[in-house]
Amino acid sequence: MSKTTSKMLTGFKYVYLIAFFALLSGFFHPLITNTSFDSVVIGVIVLFVGLAGGLLLYKSAISEKRRMIFLGGGFALISISLFYIFQITGRI
After folding, report:
1. Are the beta carbons of 47 and 25 closer than 8 angstroms?
2. From residue 91, how far is each of 39, 77, 87 by CA, in Å?
3. What is the rounded CA–CA span in Å between residue 4 and residue 10?
4. pLDDT digits (tens, 9 = 90+) for 57-82
5. Dihedral (Cα; 39, 22, 80, 86), 10-degree rounding
6. Which of the residues in the chain have pLDDT under 50?
7. Per the count of CB atoms within 10 A, which of 11, 31, 69, 78 is most buried?
8. 10 Å Cβ neighbour count for 45?
9. CA 13 from centroid of its chain's CA atoms
10. Please, which contacts does 55-63 make with residues 24 or more away whose CB atoms are closer than 8 Å?
11. Which of 17, 91, 79 is nearest to 49 (CA)?
C-alpha cells in the first residue's frame, strides 16, 4: 500500500469519527430548534475524551511495560467524561 493511500485512509478514519460523534451528540437539534451549536461541540469533546480513555484501556491490555500507567490514565479519562456528562445533564 502506498503512503498516500495510507494517509488518506487515516484521514478518512478521523473524519468519520468526528462526523459520527457530531451526529451522536445531537447535530440536528440546533438546526431544528434554531439554537446555538455549543452543546454539540461540548458533546463531541466529551465523546473524544471517553474515546481516548477507551484507547488507553486497550493499550493497557496489550502493553507490558506501562500497563498500570495506561490503566490509570484510561479510567481517569473515562471518569472525567462521565463527570462531564453528569454535569451537562444537571445531575451534579
Report:
1. yes
2. 16, 19, 6
3. 10
4. 999 999 888 899 999 999 999 999 99
5. 50
6. none
7. 78
8. 14
9. 13
10. none
11. 79
In this predicted structure, what is the pLDDT of residue 17?
82
Length of the chain: 92
Write the burial class of residue 39 (CB in 10 Å: 0-12 exposed, 13-18 middle, 19+ buried): middle
CA angle 13, 23, 92 (to 5 degrees): 115
21 alpha carbon, distance to own chain's centre: 7
CA-to-CA dists, residue 61 to 13, 67, 88, angstroms: 23, 7, 31
Question: What's at 79, amino acid-wise?
Answer: S
| Domain range list for the chain | 21-89
- The whole-angstrom separation of Cα 4 and Cα 44 is 28
* Cell numbers linked to 42: 461540548
